[in-house]
Amino acid sequence: DADVTQTPRNRITKTGKRIMLECSQTKGHDRMYWYRQDPGLGLRLIYYSFDVKDINKGEISDGYSVSRQAQAKFSLSLESAIPNQTALYFCATSRAGGEDTQYFGPGTRLTVL
Amino acid sequence: QKEVEQDPGPLSVPEGAIVSLNCTYSNSAFQYFMWYRQYSRKGPELLMYTYSSGNKEDGRFTAQVDKSSKYISLFIRDSQPSDSATYLCAMSPNTGNQFYFGTGTSLTVIP
After folding, report:
1. What are the tens digits of pLDDT across the range B72-85?
2. For residues A10 and B36, what is the distance between their CA atoms, to the nearest angstrom?
3. Closest CA to A92 of B81, B92, B27, B76
């Protein structure tokens, strides 16, 4: 089984709808992240969480919110989706201390019409 | 100015060629340097990880970090068609609070 899973893998929705993307991990990592990837812009950090009680805004948090339900679960919500939120969304995890690197999920392709 | 600059390519090479991928950065606080490989419709996967300056080799892959020039490189020897992917550089400061990614270089290795 994959260490970092994301659901759904693909989603098409309409402007104004509320959308939740979910991420689960079995790596036992404390830190979790949400990114979006756009052509020519690379990966941009939306939110990150260092533990269950810790939530931090990233570079592009406007229009998004997150919830860290447990160490292994981190969800991303679009309160009222708009077309420029059409992108590929990735969840990632890392551990505190030691080798400082991130492990990514397979991504969710979101299209907002 | 972006924290991390990476030439997007695309880069196309014949099988067996040596490939050089590069990133420059502006933040002297970066200590951790990574290269990720991303196949189409997949998440990035860690390829190489380096702390501070120096070289690291893993099979056909060599990562180099030159902190004095704020420049990192990934070399791929004897490139294979299976190396065709987008390569992302990433880096973070000591605290590891945030990772900064390049935009990625698209590589195609032609059989």
Report:
1. 999 999 999 999 99
2. 23
3. B92
